C-alpha cells in the first residue's frame, strides 16, 4: 500500500480513534503541548524531521534559519524540533507556500510559528507549541535532518507517521502503522454503531455493552438492528 492510500485512510479518522487503537497495543504517542493553528484541518503522513539549535551570533554576518524544505518529499509531514523554544519562530508564510507547492502534507513545530492568519487562509495543516512574530534568523539554525527527535518524553523516529487534528498530534511507530490503522478504523466503526443505537432509543449502558465499548477495536458486527430500541428488545 502506497503513502497516498494510507493517508486517505488516516484522513477519514480522528486522533481519539487512533489513540484508542494505540492504547490497545500499549503504545503512547501524544505530542504534548502541540496545538493546531488552523482549526478544522487534518494532518497525516510519514515524518521528515528537522533539528534546530541555538546560534551564537555576533551580528557581523547573516544566518538564515534553514533552507531544508527543498529536500522534503511530497506527502510527508515536517516535524521541526526547536526544543519547544517559544521566543523565536521556525515556521512562517513563505515556508508554507513552498510546502503547498511541493505537496507536503503539513508541519508540526516543537517551537513557535508565525504568519498564522496568512497560513489559515491557505488551509495548511500547521501545529505548534507556540506563536511568536520574532524571526529565527540569526537566532537558530538547522543542525540535522531525518534524525530521531524527542518532543517532551515522546521519541519520534524518521519514518514514523504523524496524525493530527483539533485534538492534537500523535506519532505512530512505522512498524505498527497498519496494525494501528486497522484497529482505529474498527474503533471508529464501533463508536458509530453505539451512536446509531442510542439514537434509536437504546440506553447508553446497553449500547456500550452490546458493541464492546470496553474493546472497541474488536469491531464485532452485531446482526441485531440498532435503528430502534423496540426492535432490539424484540
TrEMBL record:
Q: Which InterPro entries match?
A: RraA/RraA-like, RraA/RraA-like_sf
Q: Transmembrane stretches, by residue range?
A: none
Entries under PANTHER family matching the protein? 4-HYDROXY-4-METHYL-2-OXOGLUTARATE ALDOLASE 3-RELATED
Name the Pfam families for this protein: RraA-like
Traced from the root, the source organism's taxonomic lineage reads: Bacteria, Pseudomonadati, Pseudomonadota, Gammaproteobacteria, Pseudomonadales
- Please verify whether the record's keywords include Nucleus: no
Top-level taxonomic group: Bacteria
Query: In its UniProt entry, what is this protein called?
Result: Putative 4-hydroxy-4-methyl-2-oxoglutarate aldolase
UniProt KW keywords: Lyase, Metal-binding
- Please give the cofactor(s) recorded in the UniProt entry for this protein: a divalent metal cation
